[in-house]
Every structure is written in structure tokens, then in C-alpha cells.
Amino acid sequence: MAQVNELFPTTNTVSGEITLVEYVVSLDKLGVHDVEHVGGKNSSLGEMISNLAGAGVSVPGGFATTAQAYRDFLELSGLNEQIHAALDALDVDDVNALARTGEQIRQWIMEAEFPEQLNAQIRTA
């Protein structure tokens, strides 16, 4: 089974320039070696689809968004800077401050717009 980084290169190995970014991958293309690209649950679903479908076990299809999609979402939305600033100012010994900051960061993420490329790939999937 091909790994995500083989299917969807993000860096041109000749020039070093980013040439293609895939944010969405079909679960049936994933396997145990793709954990760093799509997380453990998604790679496990890919393994189940590959290994159990032939045995008659019904595993739902679908798609995974990649870790790169998440990183680019945070960067392009400006959330990386906001989150780091909030965490830098946080008193980690103050449990109430931890809860408030966590809630604020979750709210920022929920309100942020997805990059158009990610939106388009999700709609296509």
C-alpha cells in the first residue's frame, strides 16, 4: 500500500518548492504507516478497509483531512500567532486561566475560515 507522502508530495525534491498540497485523502488509500500524516484513527480506518473488507466486514468509507491541512489552516488564518501569544501570557499554575484560555482557543478555531483549497477538496471528497 502506498503511503500518503508517496501519493501526495508537498515538496518538489528537485527545487525544494511546494508544488502540490493534498489536504484530503480517501480512507481506502491509508494504512498504518500514515499516522503522522492523518492521525491514528484515520490510518486505522484505512487498515480496516484494506484488511477486513475482503473478509466481509463492513467498514464505512470516507476521507481524512491531513495534518498538513490543520497546520496550514492555523498558519493561513493567523491562529498560530494568536495561540502562541495566548499561551505565552498564560499562568499555567492557574487552573481557571487554563480553562479560559483553552475555551478561547477552541472558539477561535471554530470561528476561523478554512483556506479555499481545503474547502474545495472537502467538497470534492
UniProtKB/TrEMBL annotation:
Biological processes annotated in GO: gluconeogenesis
Decide whether keyword tRNA processing is in the record: no
In this protein, which residues make up the domain named Pyruvate phosphate dikinase AMP/ATP-binding?
A: 36-125
Q: Which GO terms describe its molecular function?
A: ATP binding; metal ion binding; pyruvate, water dikinase activity
Its domain of life? Bacteria
Part of which pathway?
Answer: Carbohydrate biosynthesis; gluconeogenesis
User: Which Pfam families does this UniProt record tie to the protein?
Assistant: PPDK_N
Keyword field: ATP-binding, Kinase, Magnesium, Metal-binding, Nucleotide-binding, Pyruvate, Transferase
Q: What class of enzyme is it?
A: transferase
* Catalytic function, reaction form: pyruvate + ATP + H2O = phosphoenolpyruvate + AMP + phosphate + 2 H(+)
Cofactor(s) needed by this chain: Mg(2+)
Report the EC number(s), separated by commas if there are several.
2.7.9.2
| Coiled coil ranges | none
Report the function annotation for this chain: Catalyzes the phosphorylation of pyruvate to phosphoenolpyruvate.
Alphabetical list of PANTHER family matching this protein: PHOSPHOENOLPYRUVATE SYNTHASE
By sequence similarity, the record places it as follows: Belongs to the PEP-utilizing enzyme family.
- What is the protein's given name? Phosphoenolpyruvate synthase
Q: What is the source species? A: Pseudomonas syringae pv. pisi str. 1704B
